[in-house]
Amino acid sequence: MAAKGPSIDSPIRPYLPTVDKELWQYLLLEIYPLIKIGKTSAQVLDVFETSDNASELGKALKGNQYYGDALQKLIKEKGLKSEARDEANAAVLLGMLNTRNIICASQMWRNIHGEDLQSYDFEKILYFANKANEFKQLFGKSGPMWVYASGLIWDFIRELMTLDERFDQKELTWLNKQFERAYKAGKMAFLLLNERKEDQFLFYRHTTAACLVLGAGYALMAFLDPENYPNVLDKALEEKLGSPGIQLMEQAWFGISHCQMATLLSASFPMFQDINPSLICADHPQILNQNKNKKSKDYYFLSLAIHLSFNAISYQQPALINPAKIPLPWDAAQIDRAFKRALT
């Protein structure tokens, strides 16, 4: 599975090394299996998407002594009450957001470290996931659970980077920069689809999260070559290679692209599996426009919004917004409006 090196004519070709089989095995057997949302976390996030109700949250946690004990522990630490009657009461006392964070952080920590979480410093542990709160403030209730879950993927990746001696603070800073790029692209994509909300897209609520999952695909690529990939991606963006060109570069280098990495990640987070076609075709959305049924149209518009937004945010030049040269359902004013608001 080791790559043979790039076969494309590119200004960054001299910077491209190859990757060996052992690194592939390390990623696929030791890193990737740890990036997985737990069943209880998924149930808790589903409550936030469907009801946002403490009683329903309590039902999702009912009978789960491990998390019941964790909630009781935090209640005592905060001095709120000596004991809550049940999980629903504990959720009310702690607040819905704290309860969600406890469950998701605890499961993430056990996945990666194999031990119980001892500190509830959510600003540190769930730094990316809690960006969902900012999204909710900006755009209301359209898909905050999806954004939180996609941010959680980034928190898994960041925690795994801190444990990998091949990464240092420079790469963690790079990770933050990549998250911001994906998050701004997600805001722009959401705003673009909002311009056509009369079409009632099936995946409208997934839009920002889809961009974050795709961006996490870039981040996961770094585990294949931490020394070179972040620098090469930065160079590719600087040289305005365009996302289809970056995909070709990755395929030539590793035999896999960020789009394929994103679909691997979505397989570990069941709430994202429905949007896999839009992720895998994000650099070539026109592929999805060949079938004229309604669901294919939804996949196409989501993939197209992702494609336009990532390129707009990455290059900030209108000529490079649409490197695949696809006929657009938005006019220049709509694209410019979405782009400028996404940057705020």
Brief synopsis:
This protein is an all-alpha fold and 344 residues long. It has 17 helices and no strands.
Tell me what the structure shows.
The chain is mostly helical and 344 residues long. It has a domain at 1-34 and 169-344. The chain has 17 helices and no strands. Helix 2 (39-50) packs antiparallel against helix 3 (54-61) and helix 8 (131-139) packs antiparallel against helix 9 (144-163).
Task: Present the secondary structure layout.
Elements: H1 21-31, H2 39-50, H3 54-61, H4 65-77, H5 87-94, H6 96-113, H7 122-125, H8 131-139, H9 144-163, H10 169-194, H11 207-221, H12 229-238, H13 243-254, H14 258-267, H15 276-280, H16 294-315, H17 332-342
Helix pairs in contact: 2-3, 2-6, 2-9, 3-5, 4-5, 5-6, 8-9, 9-10, 9-11, 10-11, 10-16, 10-17, 11-14
Instruction: Specify the biggest β-sheet.
Output: none
Total strand count, please?
A: 0
How helix-rich are the residues, as a percent range?
A: 55-70%
Rounded average pLDDT: 81
Helix and strand content put the structural class at mainly alpha
Sheet-strand content, in percent, reads under 5%
One letter per element, helices H and strands E, the order comes to: HHHHHHHHHHHHHHHHH
Q: Low-confidence stretches at least 5 residues in length (pLDDT < 50)?
A: 1-17
Termini separation = 42 Å
Instruction: Please give the radius of gyration in angstroms.
Output: 21 Å
Shape: globular
Number of continuous helical runs: 17
